[in-house]
Specification:
Keywords: Plasmid. With about 250 residues, the protein is an alpha+beta fold. It contains five helices and seven strands; from the N terminus they run E-E-H-E-H-E-H-E-H-E-H-E. The chain is about 20% helix and about 20% strand. It is elongated.
Amino acid sequence: MTTDDRDYYSPEDFGDTYYENEHYGPGTPDADSDPNNTEIECSECDRPITAGDDLCADCERELAEANAHPDAYAPVFDEIAVGYEPTVDDIAFAVVPACSRYEAIIKATHAFHDRETPDLPTGFDGRTFILIHEAPESDIRPFTVGWGALPDALPVASEDGLRLLNKARRRTDWLDDPLEDRPAAPWFYLYDEAGAPVTTASDFVDLLDGYHVPDSPEEYTPPEYGSTKPELWIVPGLAYTITPIVAS
């Protein structure tokens, strides 16, 4: 066996290295080297075609189909959604059983997430709310008129928690009120643990059933403490309307 120890090579050592044009299959003549070649390339797909033509048979057929049915190649929509913009509807309260402030916030997050929002844009899967403790002060301020200070979570059996619950009850547009007393689009301030709105007086009674609601200040629960067994907590949030942002 011969070992090649050369450090340098000449072009002749590599044989014929002339450039070959790519072609489609064996037997296709090289247009650059054969003066008798009568084929050129399709202007769309580069397939070899007869000189004098512009397109191959397949591309001509596709062009004829496109010209015969121009609407089939038009965009389905003139507008394409590129994002979503949330705007605050109003304040809302989740009333959930919990043993601590932390547990109440977690349960309220799930309750607001699970509430029905039938007017959501198709394809939107983001949040439709923000809890008070997450919201910027500038977003909260317009909706606190008449409510007073809005804490992140309070036991219903505390002084401020009971105050918020009773204000929400008085402001709710109950569905069992006389029709003439109800607005066309009633607003429900209270939601239960499952995210269902509290819409009637019987719903409100069921919400409180089995839990302690104090009748006098002596029975208030200190808001800074939790409990060994679940009690009702009220957690305020802001409900959103979601609007698609579109670009044409």
